[in-house]
Amino acid sequence: MDDQRLRELRDVHPELADLWEEASASVTAAAGPDALEDVRVRFLGRKSRLTEILRSIPSLPVEQRPLVGRWANQVRIALEQSVEEREAELAAEAISRSLAEERIDVTLPGVPFPLGHEHLVRQTITELEDIFLGLGFTVAEGPEIEHEYYNFTALNTPADHPARSLHDTFFIEGSPDILLRTHTSPVQIRTMEGQEPPVYIICPGRSYRRDSDATHTPMFHQIEGLAVDEGITLADLKGTLHQMVHEFFGPDRAIRLRPHYFPFTEPSVELDVSCELCGGAGCRSCKYSGWLEILGAGMVDPALYGFVGYDADKVSGWAFGMGVERVAMLKYGIPDLRAFYDNDLRFLEQF
Prior knowledge:
Blueprint: H1 3-12, H2 14-29, H3 33-44, H4 49-55, H5 65-101, H6 120-134, E1 138-139, E2 145-147, H7 148-151, E3 171-172, E4 175-180, H8 185-194, E5 199-208, E6 219-229, H9 234-249, E7 255-262, E8 265-274, E9 291-300, H10 302-308, E10 316-323, H11 324-332, H12 345-348
Parallel strand pairs: 1-5
Antiparallel strand pairs: 2-4, 3-4, 5-6, 6-10, 7-8, 8-9, 9-10
Helix pairs in contact: 1-2, 2-3, 2-5, 3-5, 6-11
């Protein structure tokens, strides 16, 4: 981080600026891998001050959240890069010492060790988390084995809804009210039960449905978002999703909202992005419509607030849900969702 950006950071958040200077100096001073790991845990670990600042963003005034969130994420990214660079330096120094101190036969062929990396699904989740953390959201998680109440009832899904059928949902044998969650929406209900408004969260995680074909798998990943506060409107939802699309897919992608139906939102919409291949002109990829659907969303149905004790006359909110694999397929041009789980290294090594 250069001097100019450091001055800008100090004007926005002096504590972050001091944290960056201290951390940067500590990384540079780390004399070995163990010392560097101590520095990493101290400044980037779960109990670090930087993590506390990121977690405190929802408590800041609304106008400060995006600014502080963006700078805090930039400091985190810069620190991670600094640690990686110092790690490489220490490794190079160790090799130099080894070559100077040990006699080896440099004519012998080396033994290649393939390097691994995060799975594309994990990469996509991390990228989307970073986008929403920068917008002032926090990450919430919940159980994958869920109660029927949280998965359906509290989400305004009636008892005769098709999703409750054994053909669509994995229920636990012997426990008719226990199931593998069909979406990460129960996390929204659990969060609202334990937290007064305002609520700004995203809920990444695994979900389960009885589907298996080129575009569906029995286990898949979702990221859902929820914003509940005073004065929230559909315009706030559209602006947030527009920013997400531009950061994830690129600034040249257009969006549109289409009316739809979901039990837990009213009104409900689906979000489409312009087709990257044809630029909206129409092609086989987008079925000649020029658009690709990526997620469902809408304003939270006021009936849901009754399940969590919120006053529907005082607060409003919106929610969305998207499949991680689907947006990854659209971004990278992957034709078959099952490729994510075939464990074919020819596929995985491309990302």
